[in-house]
Structure formats: structure tokens, C-alpha cells
Design goal:
alpha/beta; Rossmann fold; 2 domains; five-stranded parallel β-sheet; three-stranded parallel β-sheet; 43% helix; globular
Amino acid sequence: MNRRTVLNRALSGAFISLAFAVPLAAHAADPIRIGWLSSLTGALSSAAIAENQGVQFAIDEINNAGGINGSKLELLTRDTVGDPTKAVNLANQLIHSDKVAFIIGPVNSGESLATVPVVSRAGIPNIVIGSVDELIDPVKYPRAFRVISSNEQWVRNGNDYATKTLKKTKVAIIADTTGYGVATAKKAAALLEAQGIKPVYSVVVDANKTSLTDEMTKAREAGADVVMPWSAATGLLARVLNARGDMQWNVPVVGHPAIMGTPIKALLNAPGYWENTFSVGYASTTYDANGQLPAATRKLMEAIKPKLGGKIDFTFWWVAMGYDTVKVIEHAIRTAGSTDPAKIQAALEKTQKLPGVYAPFYSYGLKERNGFPDEGIAINRASTFKDGSFERAPQ
């Protein structure tokens, strides 16, 4: 065999080895695909748009730092328009066509009630940001881990503020006729009755009803000393406040986080109608006695402000929650050393006091999928919005 033949065969062998080596190297650097089900348009878009800012910022931050274990994150955003049927179709697309390793969302509980079982059957880890309690079940949905506070936390803390801080015992509950509203009205009443307090008045109304004067009049006639509205519909909440103000009835209102949302202001008959109104909120976006926010919140605000045009004109806890969903995923992958769903589940089940921005920390367990601690809840004065945050309610 002459030298040319030997050289040709050596080169041929080298090319064959390289041909096998390239796919392996490419596979090692494949991006980690994350599906993001978000209602970026439609009636529920305001919160979703803010959350999306946080999700995208965390993705960019991780990728700019080199990714996770050598792999960049690839975000596949799908707009559900707030429609549960569309959310299910998009979830199936992300699972079966796009082959994502994780799914975040959907944004609201109505969609999540439809999608969480679908994602669970596929065995894909799901970071849940819907608040209703039924979305979390470690037996039925073992890979669904909640980042947002639960609805029971909202209701329990709202009840405690009304009855233990304000010392009110004659509660009127007003909710909407959605599945969320009906279920929450029942939950609020049950938790109050466990304290020995039976509501003096309780009603569910269509979220589009143009006036709540009749309901508020009945609440006053029943002797209510506090009104507790449980609805995410800002229009309905504004009409509760308008009816109270027009009646010149200065009863305190304590309720759902949406009652301190910035759209409320434009719907009020008078600015003063927002006073004596208190909302379940978050320590992360609550000013302390010195007018300061927690350090983690300030750090994220300063980092993300340039992308928000230099100002924060919407409730910042939505941004912080979106950011934390991605950071929980990052923690799970780094801890597991893999995107294998079983290993991700095991890693999250062992997670204790993982620092966050929206929450002070997240803790899960073998039988615990609610990661948000009660320490992260605060009650806010609804009318005090400033730079995405609020003042604490009187204690």
C-alpha cells in the first residue's frame, strides 16, 4: 500500500468520525424549549402583558449569561386570547409538535382548569400561575407546581384583615357569576364561618351588570359593616365602589387584588370613591415605613426599567411573577442536571426557600405543590399606586 492510499484512508476515517461527532455536539447545545401560554390579547391581556415582560427579561438574562449547562433557553410564546379551548389546542401544539420541556401558564384560572390536565397527561412540567385551588393536586397533577399565591391565601388573608384588623363581624360578600366568582364566594363564606362569622349578605351578579346600587343597598340594610367583593372583573369592582360612593356609605371594602388595579381609577365617578378600600397584595410590591421596597424588587425594577421605557405604570408584581417562573425553571434544571421530567419533578420536590422577587422564597415538597408562602402576602391601600407598588393598609 503506497503512501497516497494510506493518507486517503486516514482522511476518510477522520471525516467519518467528524460526521458522527457533529450531531452529538449539536445535540449537546440544543436549546431548552419553554412553552408560554399567555393571553396577550383579549379581555384578560393587561396582566398577561406585564407578566410577559418578566418572562422575556428572565429568558434574556439567562441566555446573555451563557444559558443553563451550556444550553440557551428558547421561549415559544402562544397567545390564547383568554379562550380555554384555544389554550388547550396551543398546549397540545407545544407538547406534541414543538416538543417543549416546560410549559408556563396559562395566565388565568379558567384556561388553566382546561390545560393543566392535558399537560399533566403528557408528563410535562407545568409552572402554574392560576390561583384557584383545584389546579394543584400532587396525585392528579404531580408535575404542576404553582408560583402564584393560591386563591385560598387571598381569601383567608382578606378575611383576616376584615375581621381581625378592622374588627368587622357583619360581612357582605359580592362575587360574579363566573366559575371563579361562585367558587370564591363559597370559599370566603366557609372560611368566615370557621371563625364563627356568618355573612349577613351574599350575592353573585353578572360581571356586566351596569349598576350595583341594588346589591349595595341590600348589604347596608342587612347591617353590613364591611363589603368583600371577590371578582377579577375591574368593571364590576368599580361599580361596587361607585354604588358605595353615590350612596355616601363609607363602609370599608376589602377584596380581590384587582380592586387596586390601575384601570379602576378611570372607571370611578369620583377619585375619593377609592378611599377606605383595601386589597390583598404582596410584600414584594409594598412600601415599608421608609417608603422603600424590598431589595430584590428594587434590583429587578432598575434592571428592567429601560425595557419599559424608563417608567413602571402597571402593577409590578405581575412582572416579578413572570420573572420568577423562569428562575424556578432555571433552578430545577441546574439542580436536576437535566431536563428529564422525572428528575425535574424530584428537584422541585426537594426545593426549600428558593429566593424569589415576587415571593420572598418558594418551597415545595413530596406532597406540596404550592410554593408561595403566607409571608409574601400583604394588604394594601387600593388607591396608593406609585411606580407599580402600593402602601400597606393600616395595621
